[in-house]
Amino acid sequence: MYILTVGLNHKTAPVEVREKLSFPYEKLEEAFPRLKEKKHVHGCTILSTCNRTEVYAAVTDVDTGLAGIKAFLAESCGLTTADIRDFIYVHTLYDAVRHIFRVASGLDSMILGETQVLGQVREAYEISRDQGATNGVLNTLFQQAITVGKRVRTETKIDQNAVSISYAAVELAKQTFNDLTGKSVLIIGAGKMSGLTAKHLVSHGVNSVLVANRSYDKAVAMAEEFGGRAIRFENLFDYFNQADVIISCTAASSYIITAEKTAAVRRDYHKPLFMIDIAVPRDIDPEIAEIDGVQLKDIDELQYVVDKNLAERKKLAADAEVIIEEEIASFFKWLSSLFVVPTIKALRQKAENIKENELERAINRLGSLSEREKKVIGSLANSITNQLLHDPIINLKEYATTHQGHLYAEILQNLFGLEVEGQKMKKKDIGQKPVTIHSSKK
């Protein structure tokens, strides 16, 4: 059984192609039967997000299985395989396993180390399993991929450094207050960036949300999203002292929050106030930072945090790659056992068939032999057969404990022309992951 990955993502295909090849939940129920109808496809999982669509499959013939998966993807978007050829990538065997482990770890994402993709991998696996689309190999692969994703995040903390402007704002607010539980936020402007920042703040414990916007209806809509309250834009200074955090991101051409007005409303109020100006041009007069008890961060300071954290994530990604290599070795030790045992059985059976046929032929040609003579000739044939098989079988068993065991099994199958049920690979495919022959086993 061989593992294949065929897909496209944000690095290989524009959004207009990705959206044609997406598989929302309602399309999956009919997609799995069509995919499993393809020749030699014995198990499959479809991972479909806004940034990628990938088919993972366990096949018994690499060439035929690959052609079937490509045809399935083309059929699903009403195109031909030639139309999608330049957008898709293919990973087989070792590279397919490495790919899903890197995807689950957030190392192949648009935002390095992001967390959401791990949940998407888990959901894709559970849906395909519940639909009866997976098999034993894919079940083990995805269960281990989920474990790898968790291990990478636990051991490297790669997802704990903010790499978006909205999340960086939250991280700075947490540094100011230590704990955001029970804090209040005033959002000025009802755009996407304000909404993302508010979402992150609420997820970290902020429980009171006020929204001010020039369009009161938009303020109401955003406030409802977070269980908050809309206020009239012209009255926003009346609520300054109710907020612990103020986020401003409007399209104003000049300061909407001046130092003079802010100083006036805070004259007799010394509770800490953290202000975040995400707007360009700026919404908040930078002189406000001189007011006692007020901290102000603008978008350049937030971007500095993002750049610094992204550099740190890239360093941690190297540690994650080490973990992934360890997990790949573990997976292939398991997979190798699936290849090696039936290969040894097939080799022994072929040797036994040849021995029996040639022994019968020789005895018939020799004519009248005593039982003792037949026994001596039979013992000789058994001894020759066992000695010839001894080293290949012992070596293959030792290689079964390495991540290259399945490749040695494939080579043996091709050298001896063995037919192993559920395993058929073209000779040209054996080089997918180079095999290094060592003088001693490890």
Q: Can you walk me through this structure?
A:
The protein has 442 residues and is of the alpha/beta class. Helix content is 53%, strand content 13%. The protein has 3 domains: 178 residues, Glutamyl-tRNA reductase, N-terminal domain (Beta Polymerase, domain 2, 2-Layer Sandwich); 128 residues, NAD(P)-binding Rossmann-like Domain (Rossmann fold, 3-Layer(aba) Sandwich); 102 residues, no CATH class. The strands form 2 sheets. It has a 6-stranded parallel beta sheet. Helix 6 packs antiparallel against helix 7, helix 12 packs antiparallel against helix 13 and helix 13 runs antiparallel to helix 14. One of its GO terms (biological process) is protoporphyrinogen IX biosynthetic process from glutamate.
Keywords:
NADP, Rossmann fold, 4pyrrol_synth_GluRdtase, 14 helices, 442 residues, 4-stranded antiparallel sheet, elongated, 6-stranded parallel sheet, EC 1.2.1.70, alpha/beta, disordered C terminus, Beta Polymerase, domain 2, oxidoreductase, NADP binding
